[in-house]
Specification:
- Helix content is 6%, strand content 39%.
- The protein has 2 helices and 34 strands.
- It is globular and about 120 Å long.
């Protein structure tokens, strides 16, 4: 290549570079842009929302391949927190005995971290679960026989882990299932199809202050009325038509209680149907009678623990037993009708080391005797099963052996058997007598059980247990 040709190539490249440089300086890219105005993208109405908005139940998934197993005609039900009668006692529909070769594993299911427990209805189990990866609160419907998921309805609600997420137990009423999520979101679905019926955000609607460690209150359905205790700025308790979500009555929060981890319990006190609730600030009774539903009948604030998980328990026609952890201990509340009003008086209160108490689980009133697991600050009998007489709440009439300590584990009664679940995953079965128990069988059912605190659920010979990340179904009767 000669020098003249090289010179012309160099001049051409330089001219091209100069032209590109001049064009880059004078080019105006904004001339081809248009203004973005609301609605210009033709997005469907209603899809826009703020980042912190929660659309309760917005997503749904059904496993088309999953089929419900055949359901025995006498299969039992465990439709809500503490069972059919809200007492944590179940009955077998037919005679059953403990299996000779031990409790049998039927299935196991991995969950997000939490302590929410299942309910059982018509061969299905329903449980709240939190998917940390998706930041989603989910209601899962499972086949009780196999553990296979039939459907799931969920919604996004970003949260940070705080000793787990989900803690509450659904409630079944007729063809509906109702849940309360970790942040106080109420969701009502068709229990068979998962179809969304209605929802409520207690945090936004009532300015509810969600407790530390998230919501622990389980929904109560009483004669087709969903009873909630938002304990918000203006509303203490309310009754909702479970079919429609319409508010039927509300109780003004004149006592200024805040939401606790405890649940509302129905009782018959002094001949009056009453909803009893322990909030942060004290305990109260609200009328469940049709003619004055929602009326605040009485309240007491002499005993008011800062943290309370167990629910109130009736022990006589006018007495309610109260327990809480973190040093609160126990208290005996007497409720009496006085003329046109009521008196609620704390007759006795004491520290956990001085009498019957519980930190996590609600005690059981079985044939006039009170069954509990004593808390970790319960002195020398800490974490043992214990039986008390209502006539003496300070001295037990029976305790489990020194090596039978259960931590914060749950327990329930089936016929005359008591099942107690150690928080490390070991299951005990006792024969209940008059003021005593006899150990029948114990078995490790979770190899590395961690924080097995979720309440138990039972139906038709099957017991559902869980630790912080696993639910198991066990055959405990044959």
């Amino acid at each position: 290549m000669n020098d003249k040709r090289i010179t012309w190539i160099t001049i051409g490249v330089a001219a091209l570079y100069l032209a590109l440089l001049i064009g880059w300086h004078f080019y105006d890219p904004s001339s081809s842009l248009t203004e973005a105005v609301p609605g210009a993208d033709n997005r469907p109405a209603g899809n826009a929302r703020k980042a912190d908005d929660v659309l309760i139940g917005e997503f749904f998934m059904k496993d088309s391949a999953a089929q419900l197993s055949a359901v025995a005609p006498d299969a039992g039900e465990w439709p809500c927190f503490r069972g059919v009668n809200h007492d944590n006692i179940a009955s077998n529909a037919r005679p059953m005995s403990l299996p000779k070769d031990g409790f049998k594993d039927m299935w196991s299911l991995e969950t997000g971290e939490g302590h929410a427990a299942p309910v059982i209805s018509e061969g299905r189990a329903y449980v709240l679960d939190y998917d940390e990866r998706m930041s989603a609160d989910a209601l899962r419907c499972l086949d009780l026989q196999t553990g296979k998921q039939l459907w799931k309805r969920w919604y996004r609600v970003p949260m940070k882990r705080n000793h787990g997420f989900s803690r509450t137990i659904p409630a079944i009423c007729g063809g509906l299932v109702v849940t309360i999520g970790p942040e106080g979101h109420v969701m009502c679905c068709d229990k068979l199809t998962g179809e969304m019926k209605w929802s409520m955000d207690m945090k936004k609607r009532f300015e509810t202050e969600i407790p530390f460690w998230y919501t622990g209150q389980c929904p109560l359905i009483d004669n087709d009325i969903l009873v909630l205790a938002p304990a918000g700025k203006d509303t203490l308790m309310l009754g909702v038509d479970v079919q429609t979500g319409e508010t039927l009555w509300g109780t003004p929060n004149t006592v200024e209680f805040k939401m606790s981890h405890s649940s509302v319990m129905p009782m018959m006190l002094g001949g009056t149907r009453t909803y009893v609730y322990i909030g942060v600030g004290g305990v109260c009774g609200v009328s469940a009678e049709t003619e004055n539903a929602g009326k605040l009948l009485w309240s007491a604030n002499k005993w008011q623990p800062s943290v309370v998980a167990p629910s109130p328990m009736q022990i006589s026609q006018n007495q309610v037993f109260l327990v809480a952890g973190y040093g609160a201990g126990g208290a005996l509340l007497q409720v009496d009708k006085s003329g046109s009003g009521w008196n609620a008086t704390v007759k006795d209160s004491y520290k956990a080391s001085e009498g019957m108490s519980s930190e996590q689980q609600t005690p059981i009133n079985y044939k006039g005797k009170l069954v509990t697991i004593l808390p970790k600050d319960g002195g020398g009998m800490r974490e043992r099963l214990a039986i008390y007489s209502p006539d003496n709440l300070h001295k037990p009439i029976w305790t489990s052996a020194a090596d039978e300590r259960f931590g914060l584990g749950p327990y329930l009664v089936v016929d005359d058997k008591l099942f107690a679940f150690k928080e490390d995953g070991e299951l005990y079965a006792y024969q209940l007598g008059t003021g005593s128990m006899t150990l029948l069988h114990k078995q490790r059912v979770m190899e590395e059980g961690i924080d097995a605190w979720g309440p138990l659920a039972y139906a038709d010979g099957m017991l559902l247990v869980r630790d912080s990340k696993t639910i198991k179904c066990l055959r405990v009767f044959e």
